[in-house]
Amino acid sequence: MAFPMVHLHVAYGVARALNLDDADTSAVLLGALAPDGVHYRPRFNNATQSGIGMAKKLSHLCPPGNEPWGRVTDNDGWVAEALRLHRSWQCYTDIDYMALGYVVHVLTDIYNNKTIWHDYRTAFPLEAVKGYGSAYYVELAALDIHLFHDAETETIMRLLPMAEARDFSGRVAAGEIEDVRAGLFSPVQNGNFTVYVGSTIPDVSAHTFVTLAQIKRFIADATDFIVEKIS
């Protein structure tokens, strides 16, 4: 599904659409990293899609069903489940902005499932079965590094450290969320995770599976999709 910088840019766009202040925006941004905290569990180091799939379905609020991670087809049911849990996480007096960010992440991945991921699997089925070993993921990582050097990312990275992580109902632990955030600020390779700090802007002009224009269009469209769903 979407990589960290894509998630952060969508979350920042949602926060701007809601006219949030810096503190609440920071909580949305950190929440938008939370569901992928499962990747930082030691037993999932270098895991395949099938190996991490059940944990990803739990952290990503997927509806009940036997479809493996990456093959979910009930997008409407997935949206309904995400919004149901979003409502259950909110209280009557104050909005839980980290929980909002969590749901923004999930809705971003649902929109990705409906668009970029669907189009990729349809056009390149033999490549798609390679899972995380596909060149598709190499291209996504390069595009994410490209986004890291975007001017808007400077604001995102300034706000991101302001929020304090917390647990999410047994789905993702606070420490795992902290690990995701720390990894974005580290210049050291940690497993298979993308290194952003100290990177140079990659040449993405020859991409086969996903282009820079597609990613930027996706960020704009996903933001609109999410704002409409949570309004």
Shape: globular
Spatial separation of the terminal alpha carbons: 24 Å
Strand fraction equals: under 5%
Order of helices and strands: HHHHHHHHHHH
Task: Supply the number of helical segments.
Answer: 11
The class by helix and strand makeup works out as mainly alpha
* Low-pLDDT segments: none
Give Rg in angstroms: 16 Å
| Average pLDDT for all residues | 92
Largest sheet: none
Helix content: 55-70%
* Number of extended strands: 0
Structure description:
This protein has 231 residues and is an all-alpha fold. 58% of the residues lie in helices and 0% in strands. The protein contains eleven helices and no strands. The protein has helices at 4-17, 22-31, 49-59, 75-89, 97-114, 116-123, 125-128, 135-148, 151-159, 174-184, 212-230. The mean pLDDT is 92.
How would you summarize the topology of this molecule?
Elements: H1 4-17, H2 22-31, H3 49-59, H4 75-89, H5 97-114, H6 116-123, H7 125-128, H8 135-148, H9 151-159, H10 174-184, H11 212-230
Helix pairs in contact: 1-2, 1-5, 1-11, 2-5, 4-5, 5-6, 5-11
